[in-house]
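User: hey, got a sec? need MFS transporter folded
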Amino acid sequence: MAKADRIDIASLHTPQMRAFHLTWAAFFVCFFAWFACAPLMPVLKGEFHLTAAQIANINIAAVAITIVVRLLVGPLCDRFGPRKTYTGLLALGALPVLGISFAQSYESFLLFRLGIGAVGASFVITQYHTSVMFAPRVVGTANAAAAGWGNAGGGAAQAAMPLLLAALLMLGVDQSLGWRIAMIVPGAAMLLMAVLYWKYTQDCPEGNFDELRAAGRVPETGGKGGWGSFRAAAANYRVWMLFVTYGACFGIEIFIHNIAAQYYVDKFGLSLGAAGLAAGSFGLLALFARALGGWLSDKAAHRGDLAPRVLLLFVLMVGEGLGLYLFSHAGAAVFAVASMLAFGLFTHMACGATYALVPFIDRKALGGVAGIVGAGGNVGAVVAGFVLKGVGDVQQTLTILSVAVMVAALCAIAVRVGIGSLDGAAAPAGA
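Assistant: Yep! Here you go:
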């Protein structure tokens, strides 16, 4: 069976569309779980008597471990297939999500928050699975749509978790117990999704990698397999250029998810619910903005020339940097939300445009490329966290990051993937 050359949103009849819908749904659940703590931080700050430095450590821990896990899951997808890899991540990742409900101190909370960060690697598997299921003509749109709808889980968590806690409080549950009960919900959802993913997906259009290899057939992707995939990707300078650009768009996205609710409470005096809704609107842009970035990238390369994809990414990142600068200087809550939505639109579109390039860098080392570029997003978030910790002021940090994003946009131009075709060919690793 060949890769799908169209996206039939209403269908679940083909393995390509089942993979598409289940992978974005799994990603949504993982992102919801990953950021479920963030909108509750004003409550958790009082629960554990957290200092500003401790909150910064928690935010860094939430994204730091993801760097390592993202580097691992890309080659694991090449070796074992996305079906096994995703199922394992969902099942194991649910443990720290459930465990955080039992944290009794800053140290135990920090440890579980570190563990939860591993579920952020779900993004790499999502991008891998859609990349192997869809043809180059639509792969940018498929990648961006699946990632965007999944990313919306972060925004949904920002809006839903305070409301879930409020509902529990209305039922008479104590606040100290209420947030713990609320955190059980995303953990249970991950376990359910693990079962669904295992039962209803397959690794690629032809079947599962194990079955193909047993029959003497080598899957089109993952040809280098395991660490060979990682080494091939690591030797390609274009991978590291995208590593930087993704750090400057997705890294900023993660950073905003972690600090937005607290920022709206501290700077503008919003209630926990209002701050959660404001912060959640940023993440919910992913429902369409990331897909829009991938779709525009596909349209730009319609005649086979991939250079316009690079130029589009550059323009989007410059827009992101300018919008972030405006957000950092917002003096009123209304203007802050408006400017956040503006720069958020460019940020999500830039994320989609980045991964519209990934399948064309080296298809035989797709897992390695996807893993390294994906890890770049978390490196960007960690760097942003350390900048905040060093500067000690959110507004100054956002200003610094806005300049950094515009500088990083130059790396998009440096990719210069050149000319490619829409029949599945990709630029050689060393081209």
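Quick note: The chain has a mean pLDDT of 88. Let me know if you need anything else on MFS transporter.
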